[in-house]
Design brief:
Number of strands: 0
CATH architecture: Up-down Bundle
Oligomer: single chain
Order of helices and strands: HHHHHHHHHHHHH
Length: about 300
């Protein structure tokens, strides 16, 4: 019990720090220092510049060993299983006629905010080691998002291209970082330090963006949408709870590796739920509510699940 409370208090502190940054984003939005165009620019910077640097930086700072290499592979396998379980649940609970809503519900349950929420928390709680293990989730997330996710959200049944699968920020970061990690290739300081500086922007930028979405979301409309709340139950409790039990008692994982595999599983709905919904004609109002409300609720659920993973 003492270990649970100690772990939980540490997680609550880190979540609290992140939500202070989210509050800063909300204040900046209310003061009109940030508008939608500014958020779009920050999203592009975060996705295309900061995310690859964050992943590369983690590979540079984690010492190579066969144990860490094996654990990276285990983290990747756990990420695949997490998404498969999410896909299974999404088909069990949603098979309605309104395709615009159905695609948003399913996407929100399957894909978590692993990049914007889980990676900053992994970095805050476990340092470079947390980002290192989290990068395995990022690559699986990106591959599935640009293949299965696109087919789910594209109401015109467009096909995902191989280029989108391979050429995206998370995958590029991993493809550069893995050779550096395995072969311990030297990176000159003139490159490694700027990469490190850019990597530190991940947490504040991600939380400022989240603050914007929370402040601008329409909470009242659709607040009593039963299906939306079922999606929150699945996204925040059922799926991560099932993965925690499977990873610990089925696979025998523990320590930082277990926590880093559970962390993205218990994150709120992915920000891309709204971005891709807007791009492909989904219900953007529903997507915005799901992102905002699930992020708010995650301040209660994430500390509990992470504390349980650390006992």
């Amino acid at each position: 019990m003492h270990a649970f409370l100690e772990s939980g208090s540490g997680v609550v502190l880190q979540v609290g720090i992140l939500f202070v940054l989210i509050l800063a984003g909300g204040v900046a939005t209310k003061c009109k220092w940030i508008d939608r165009h500014g958020v779009d620019v920050m999203i592009n910077i975060l996705l295309y510049l900061v995310t690859p640097c964050l992943i590369i930086d983690s590979f540079l700072k984690v010492e190579f060993s066969f144990k860490t290499a094996m654990q990276l592979g285990i983290a990747g396998g756990c990420a695949v299983l997490t998404h498969l379980v999410g896909i299974a649940f999404s088909y069990l609970f949603w098979n309605e006629k309104d395709k615009r809503k159905k695609s948003v519900y399913r996407f929100g349950v399957i894909f978590s905010n692993g990049g914007f929420m889980a990676m900053p928390m992994a970095q805050a709680l476990f340092g470079e080691q947390g980002v290192f293990y989290g990068s395995a989730y990022v690559i699986v997330f990106n591959i599935l998002q640009w293949t299965y996710g696109i087919s789910l959200m594209d109401l015109q049944q467009g096909k995902a291209s191989l280029k989108k699968v391979l050429v995206n920020p998370g995958t590029i970061g991993v493809l550069i970082g893995i050779p550096l990690f395995f072969f311990r290739l030297p990176v000159p300081q003139i490159l490694s330090e700027p990469i490190g500086y850019l990597a530190t922007l991940n947490t504040p930028l991600a939380m400022l963006i989240t603050g914007f979405f929370l402040v601008t979301a329409d909470f009242k409309s659709g607040l009593f949408d039963r299906k939306m709340w079922v999606s929150f139950l699945l996204r925040l409790l059922v799926i991560p709870g099932a993965m925690l039990l499977l990873f610990r008692f089925g696979f025998g994982l523990g320590g930082v590796l277990l926590s880093c595999c559970v962390l993205p599983a218990c994150a709120p709905c992915a920000v891309n739920t709204m971005i891709l919904s807007a791009k492909f004609g989904g219900d953007t109002a529903l997507a915005s509510r799901m992102i905002a409300l699930s992020t708010l609720l995650s301040v209660l659920t994430m500390p509990v699940l992470l504390a349980l993973s650390q006992i």
